[in-house]
Amino acid sequence: MIIILKQNAEQRAIKALCEELKSQGLSIHESVGEATHILGLIGDTTSIAESWLRASPVVEDVRRVSEPYKKANRKFHPEDTVVTVGGTRIGGGNFAVIAGPCSVESKAQITQVAESVQAAGASLLRGGAFKPRTSPYSFQGMRAEGLELLREARQATGMPIVTEIMNTEHLPLFGDVDLIQVGARNMQNFELLKAVGQSGKPVLLKRGLSATLEELVMSAEYIMAEGNEQVILCERGIRTFENSMRNTLDISAVPMLKKMTHLPVVIDPSHAAGIAWMGEPLAQAAVAAGADGLMIEVHNDPAHAKCDGAQSLTPDQFAVLMGKIGPEAVFFGKTLN
Predict the structure, then answer these.
(1) Could you tell me which residues are beta bridge partners of residue 151?
(2) Could you tell me where in the chain the CATH 3.20.20.70 domains are found?
């Protein structure tokens, strides 16, 4: 249930109403915008009479919410959430590009890629230190050493770093990571979601390979229920019957998620197709659909990459892409960060 308060309502009366609702065992999520002030009631509201609430001098309207997600629901929070990562704003008209290699392989590699993507216009540096791989014999990442190399690349360029966490035991190693990524395979690892929620750090949550949009938003709800509302949703392609590409990019997820939730939405065209040349048209489609950002894999030597070289752009190819994405983002009303 949401309560829409009247503009210029007395704070004392609002506080009294909140205390009365809390005494009935309800939690309250408060959202204050430029022209809206909303109280979202979380808990069993079946015994709360709408007529009683409407009788309050500070209440403009009351609506019941049927969706199981509350904190992530746009009805609770009509204005777009803006997540700030190391000075870069994502959401609410702010567009950001996250770029870098699938995995950190060496100091020279990650530093070279960081400098090249920054020069092309990327705002955040991605790189995997812990790598979830389908085969146990594939490269699993440099782990703690990879995190240290990411920090060194950040020091050299000033770019915030984005990297994936695999389990709760690794969380102490992520203390100075700017944006923690929860991958597709861990989207419903609920204990991990709770842990990153408790960390208070911004979280990039990827959609599972076969997850519905409601399941994705419910996973975000796990993070937000721990008091962390700095969540960015990422559509990275879903598994379908089509086998000409790695996954199928669900571009329709962008407008639908924008209707369902107030959280920023970014697109990962690299994992969606798994084919480097498809990155450009899919990235452009994401901008046109209203995405708040992109996550693109870039490697200085894709042919010899230890992970996902086939879907990685070279620095030169990435620079060409950014030359097209920047003007298009502005055309569609976005501010490129």
Answers:
(1) none
(2) 83-336
Rounded to 10 deg, the angle between the 213-225 and 190-199 helix axes is 50
- Answer positive or negative: Cα dihedral of 116, 120, 122, 126: negative
- Measured from the Cβ of residue 20, the count of other Cβ atoms closer than 10 Å reads 13
Q: Which two tokens stand for residue 224?
A: 């937000």
SS3 82: coil
Which tokens is 134 given?
Answer: 């389908």
Token pair listed for 34 = 């430029």
Domain with CATH 3.30.70.1140 in the chain: 2-63
CATH of domain 2-63: 3.30.70.1140
Place of tokens 């870069």: 88
Say whether pTM exceeds 0.70: yes
Plot region of 180 (φ>0 → left; ψ -120 to 50 → alpha; else → beta):
beta
Integer-rounded Cα Rg, in Å, for the chain is 21
pLDDT tens per residue, the chain (337 residues)?
889 999 888 889 999 999 999 998 888 888 888 778 899 888 888 778 888 999 999 999 998 888 889 899 999 898 999 999 999 999 999 999 999 999 999 999 999 999 999 999 999 999 998 866 667 756 666 889 999 999 999 999 999 999 999 999 999 999 999 999 999 999 999 999 999 999 999 999 999 999 999 999 999 999 999 999 999 999 999 999 999 999 999 999 999 999 999 999 999 999 999 999 999 999 999 999 999 999 999 999 999 988 888 999 999 999 999 999 999 999 999 998 8
Contact of 131 with 140, CB cutoff 8 Å: yes
Structure tokens at 318: 């990435």
Please tell me the distance from the alpha carbon of residue 130 to that of residue 152, in angstroms, as a whole number: 17
Please provide the CATH number assigned to the domain covering 83-336: 3.20.20.70
CA 65 vs CA 62, 159, 196, 308: distances in Å: 10, 40, 27, 42
